[in-house]
Amino acid sequence: MSVNAIADIEFSSELTDFITEWKEKPGNLIMILHKVQQEFGFIPREAAMKVSELLDVPLAKIYGVATFYHFFKLKKPGKHNIQVCMGTACYLKGGQDLVEELQSLLGVELEEVTDDGEFSIETVRCVGCCGLAPVMVVGDEVFGKVEKQQLPEIIAKFRNR
Amino acid sequence: MNFKQYILVCGGTGCESSKSDEIYRNLLSAAESKDVKSDVQILKTGCFGLCEKGPIVKVLPDESFYVHVKPEDATEIIEEHVIKGREVKRLLYDTSDSKANKAMENLDFYQKQFRIVLRNCGVINPEDIDEYIARDGYAALSKVLSEMTPDDVIAELKISGLRGRGGAGFPTWLKWNLTKEVESDQKYVVCNADEGDPGAYMDRSTLEGDPHSLIEAMAIAAYTIGADYGYIYIRAEYPLAINRLKIAMEQARGYGLLGKDILGSGFNFDLEIRLGAGAFVCGEETALIASLEGERGMPRPRPPFPSVKGVFGKPTVINNVETWANVPVILHKGGKWFASIGTEDSKGTKVFALTGKINNSGLVEVPMGTTLREIVYDIGGGIKDGKKFKAVQTGGPSGGVITADYIDTPIDYASLQKLGSIMGSGGMIIMDEDDCMVDVAKFYLDFTVDESCGKCAPCRVGGKTMLHLLEGITKGKGTMDDIEKMKKIALGMSKASLCGLGQTAPNPVLSTLRYFEDEYLAHIQEKRCPAGKCKDLTVYEIISDKCIGCGLCARRCPVSCISGEKRQPHVIDQEKCIKCGECYSVCKFEAVSKK
After folding, report:
1. Which of A13, B110, B175, B339 has the smallest number of Cβ neighbours within 10 A?
2. Using alpha carbons only, how large is chain B's radius of gyration in Å?
3. Would the CB atoms of B429 and A126 count as touching at under 8 Å?
4. Class of the B349-432 domain?
5. Which of A30, A93, A131 is opposite residue B291, by nearest beta carbon?
6. What span, in angstroms and rounded, lies between the C-alpha atoms of B114 and B341?
7. Are B188 and B24 a contacting pair, CB within 8 Å?
8. Residue of B352, B450, B363 lying closest to B394 (CA atoms)
C-alpha cells in the first residue's frame, strides 16, 4: 500500500471535528478509535493511517492499541453481526450450542463473514442481561432465552433486510 | 403537577432487551389517546432487580407489580387500571399463595434484601435530577462542602468501615487518605466502571438506574483529596449507561453541582467520560490507568501505587461504581449508621448478580453476613426445574466455587476467602447437577488466558499451559500427573504474576480441585464426565426397552448415524456419532441415555 492511500478515505465532518476537538487532549487515542469504528463499523487500514497522520502518532502504535482491545475490529463485519453472549450464565445455559448451530446454519466460522456479506458471528463477553440467558444480539436487537430451534427464524428475519 | 397515579416502567438492560421501551411508548400513547395524560405520570426507571420476570411495570399508589408485560398490554393497563381502577390480574406477580395484589416489598424476592446502593434503582427516573434530589440526592455533597473538612470526611468513612467493592476489599478511607496526604499540583478521581466479570451486571444497573449517586460521590472524594477533575472509565459495551451518565452530568452542570464554584463553596470539580474497549485486565487499577491514557491496558508493578502516581503520573483515587454509590449515603446518614449493618469485618451491603440455574435471576442487594442459603433459596427461589444445587461460583474468573456443604456460610470478605473463593465484584452463578466442574474451570481459564495482556511470563505461559492440560482432561486424555502439574503451575502464577489477573487466574481450577476432585478423577481414570457436559466423553445410547421406533431421532440426526426398522428399536453408530445431543433432546419417550 502506498503512502498516497491516506487520501483514499473520506472522514465525515463529524469525525473530523471530533478528532480536532480531541487532538490536544492527553490519552485521546482510544476515544478517537471508537469514533472511527462508529463511522465505518470497523477500523479500515486507510483510516488508521489517516489517524496516524492527523495525530502524528506512529501507525504501529495505533495498531498496538487497536489489536489489544476486543472491541476494535480490523475486519469488516457482516451487514448483520450476530453476537452470542459467552458470559458465565449464558455459557452454562447453552451459549456454545448456539454458536455451533449458527456456524452450521451459516457455514462460517467465528469472526468470518458469509459470502453474500449478510452475516458474521462473534462471541462477546457479558451483554449484562444474565436473567435472559442465553442471550444473542443481532444489530441492536437483543434476543433472550434463545433456543437452537429459533435460530433459522431469527436469521430469516434479518436476511435481505 | 399532581398526578393521581404513577406508572414505573423498568428501563434496566434486561427489560429494555425485552421491549420495555416499546411498552413505555405504548403506555404514553394510550394515555394520550384516552385523555388521561394529566392523571397519570409514566416514567422509565432503573432496574427493579427481578430480571427473571421482566419486563416489569409497577403502578403507584396501588403498588401493583406487573411482570412479563408485553407492549400490547399497555392499552389494557391504561383502560383497566388507570381509568377504571381495576388491576390487570393476569399480569400480577404470581406467588404461590395467592394471585392477590402484593406490594413489591412483600415479595419473597425482596424480603431479605436491604437496598443502599440500589436505593434509587426502580424508584426514580434516572434522567431527572430533581427526582434524585427529592430522595436526599446531593444532600451529602452540600453537607460536606458547607460543614465538613476533608479530615472529617475521612473520619466518617473510617467509622463506616466501607471497603472497596471491586474485589479486593481495600478500606476506602485509607485509599482516600493516602491520596490526600500526597502533595501535588494536580490530583484526579476515577470511577472504574469497566465491569468485565462475565456474568455480572451490578455496576451497569447502578449506572443506568442512579447515575447521580456516582457524580455526587466523586465530587465528595475530589473535595476530600484536593482534586478538581475526574474520569469515569466505562465499558463501551454499555451505551445506555453512558447516555444516562451524559444526561446526568449535563443536568448537574446546569444546577451548579459540577463545574466552577460548586454550591458557592469555591470548590471546582468536573468530570469526563472515557470509554474502555473490552479488556478484562483494565479492571486492574494500573492497567485501567494505562488505558485511560490511551495506551494498551497493561499493568505495571506497584509501588508506586495510584494514590501516589496514577493517571498522567498524578495522585489518583480509583474506586469502582458500587463503592462510590455507598459514599453519599454514608455521609448523609453517618458512618455509625452504615457500620451498624453487616458483620464485624464487612460493613454495609453487597450487590450480587444472581444468575445461572436459579429460579429468580436478578440483581440482589443484601446486608453482609447474609447466608448463601438465604440468597439461593429465600431470595432466589431455589434451583431451576427442581434440580439439585451443586455449587455457587463467586468472584468470577478470580474466584472459586462454594459447595452445598458450606451453604450456610455468612457472606463476608473473610469467610469467602477461607473457602477458597473471594467476594469479587458480585457475580454469583448458581450451578446444578448438570454442570461439569472441570468444564467450568476450563471456561474461566479460557477467559483469563484470552484476557491476559501477555506482559509477564507466569500469566502468559502458565495460563496457557494449564488450559492445555484442562482441555486434555475434558477430552479424556488427561493423566494423574496433570493434576500435580496444574497445582505447581498455579502456585507459580499466584506468586509471580505481576497483577491480580494472573495471580488469581488459577483460583477456579484450585477451587474445583479442592471440592470436586472426584470429577477430575472420573474424567482422567474412567474417561467419563459425570455431568454429561464434556462432549468427547459423552456416549449417547438408545435404550431398546423404551424405544418405540418412531424414527424421529434418525430423521433429526445431522450425520445420519441412527438406523433401525420402523416400530423397532433403533441403534446409534458410535463411530459416526458427533455427540450433538439432538437425539437426546428430541426423543419423547426418554429412550436415549446420556452417559
Report:
1. A13
2. 26
3. no
4. alpha beta
5. A30
6. 10
7. no
8. B352
B129-338, what's its fold?
Rossmann fold (3.40.50)
Q: Which of A23, A11, A90 is nearest to A48 (CA)?
A: A11
Q: Best of B109, B197, B232, B237 to disrupt the A interface by mutation (most A CBs within 10 Å)?
A: B237
A16 close to B (CB below 8 A): no
Which positions ≥6 away from B80 have C-beta within 8 Å?
A: B86, B87, B88
Topology of domain A80-158, per CATH?
Glutaredoxin (3.40.30)
Give the model confidence (pLDDT) of B227-236 as tens digits.
999 999 999 9
What CATH number has the domain spanning B5-110? Answer: 3.40.30.10
Three-state DSSP class for B259? strand
pLDDT digits (tens, 9 = 90+) for B171-218: 999 999 999 999 999 999 999 999 888 888 899 999 999 999 999 999
**Distance between CA atoms of B156 and A25, rounded to whole angstroms?**
36
- Provide the grid cell at B550: 418412531
Q: pTM of the prediction?
A: 0.92
Per CB-CB distance under 8 Å, the chain B contacts of A127 are: 13, 17, 237
Estimate to the nearest angstrom the gap between the alpha carbon of B69 and the chain centroid. Answer: 24
What are the counts of helices (DSSP H) followed by strands (DSSP E) for chain A? Answer: 7, 4
CA–CA distance, B589 with B592 (Å, rounded to integer):
8
- B13 to A128: CB separation less than 8 angstroms, yes or no: yes
For B50, B330, B344, B367, the CA distances from B341, given in Å and listed in that order, are 23, 11, 9, 6
d(Cα B77, Cα B359) in Å, to the nearest integer?
27
Spatial strand order in the sheet of B57-60? B40-45, B5-10, B57-60, B64-66
Category of B527 on φ-ψ map: left (φ > 0), alpha (ψ -120 to 50) or beta: left
Identify whether B55 is preceded by a cis peptide bond (ω within 30 of 0).
yes
- The answer regarding whether domain B539-594 maps to CATH 2.102.10.10 reads no
Taking CA–CA distances from B558, the nearest residue in chain A reads A104
Q: What is the pLDDT of residues B296-313, one digit of tens each?
A: 999 999 999 999 999 999
Query: CA-to-CA distance for B44 and B243, rounded, in angstroms?
Result: 14
Q: Where are the extended beta strands (E) located within B339-471?
A: 349-356, 362-367, 389-394, 400-403, 427-432
ipTM over 0.95: no
Place of cell 453476613: B369
The rounded distance, in Å, linking the Cα atoms of A72 and A75 is: 9
